Amino acid sequence: MAGLLVVVLGDAAIAAAAIVGLIIMDADAADAQSVAILTSAFTAISVITTSYFGIRAVTNTAQSSIAARQE
Predict the structure, then answer these.
(1) Cβ(21)–Cβ(44) under 8 Å?
(2) Which residue in 7, 36, 41, 66 could disulfide with 52, CB within 3.0 to 4.6 Å?
(3) pLDDT tens-digit readout, 35-67
């Protein structure tokens, strides 16, 4: 449960940083920079979340396999 909390808080921090970056950004270069900021934030959130659930799935599978062999 603690791992999920870390992932959620990390995703929220990345999203907040992206929002602050968009607010602070100049209006002159807004288009290209906003696309770069949003793309980077989306990629970071996706990678962190996918990694967590991938590692969790593999761990659950390994634990089930070990438990089945012990029976």
Answers:
(1) no
(2) 7
(3) 888 899 999 999 999 999 999 999 999 999 888
Give the residue from 10, 2, 7 showing the smallest Cα distance to 54: 7
Q: How far is CA 13 from CA 6, 29, 45, 68, 70, in A?
A: 10, 24, 10, 40, 42
Torsion sign across C-alpha atoms 53, 54, 55, 57: positive
Q: What is the DSSP string of 21-59?
A: HHHHS-STTHHHHHHHHHHHHHHHHHHHHHHHHHHHHHH
Distance of alpha carbon 48 from alpha carbon 50, whole angstroms: 6
What domain range is 15 assigned to?
A: 2-70
Write down the pTM of the prediction: 0.77
Reported as type and span, the H/E element at residue 1 is none
* Structural domains counted in the chain: 1
